C-alpha cells in the first residue's frame, strides 16, 4: 500500500514537471510566434516605405524634367527683356502647352506665362476646364494667374521658386486653398528652385548694370 502511494506521488511529481516543461515550451513557442509576426510587420513597413520613397523619387525626376522645359520658356522671356518666367501644362505625362512672360513685349498684363499656357491648353483640349492637368511654373503665380488656375480647375501646380512680393500660393495669400472657393489646388514646390531663383536674380542684376 505504501509503495502504491509512493508510486502515485512520483507520478504526480513527474506530471507536474512535464506540465511545467510544456508551459515553458508553449511560452517559447508563443514568444517565437510574436517575434516572427513583429519582424513580418517591420519588413512590411520597410517595403512600404521603400515603395513610397521610390514613388517620390520618380515623381521628383518627372517634375524636374517638366520644370526644365518651363525654365527654357522663361529664358525666352528674358531674351525679350521681360521678367524670365516660364510655364508648361502637362496632361497624361505629355506637355500640351507652353507659355512665357510677354508683358512688356505685348504691352498687356494678360501676357503672363500662366495665362498664355492656360489659353493654349484650353484651345488644344477644347474645354475651359483643365482637369487632370498639372501646371509647372518657374515662379509662384500672382493673384491674376492663381485666380485663372483656380477657375480653370487645374488640380495640381508645381512651382520653382517663391514670389514673396506677389505670390498667391501661400507667400502673400493662398488662393489655392481658400475654403470659400469651389476648387482647391494641390501644390508641390522647390523643384529646380535654385535655378529658377537664379534666373530672376541674374535678370534684375543685368537691368541694374544698364
UniProtKB/TrEMBL annotation:
Its cofactor is Zn(2+). It catalyses: adenosine(34) in tRNA + H2O + H(+) = inosine(34) in tRNA + NH4(+). It comes from the Bacteria. Zn(2+) binds at residues 112, 142, 145. Keywords: Hydrolase, Metal-binding, tRNA processing, Zinc. One of its GO terms (biological process) is tRNA wobble adenosine to inosine editing. Its EC number is 3.5.4.33. It holds the Pfam family dCMP_cyt_deam_1. The active site is at 114 (proton donor). Binds 1 zinc ion per subunit. Residues 61-194 form the CMP/dCMP-type deaminase domain. One of its GO terms (molecular function) is zinc ion binding. Gene3D superfamilies: Cytidine Deaminase, domain 2. Residues 22-49 are annotated as: Disordered. Homodimer. Belongs to the cytidine and deoxycytidylate deaminase family. ADAT2 subfamily. Catalyzes the deamination of adenosine to inosine at the wobble position 34 of tRNA(Arg2). This is tRNA-specific adenosine deaminase. It comes from Brotaphodocola catenula. The lineage of its organism: Bacteria, Bacillati, Bacillota, Clostridia, Lachnospirales.
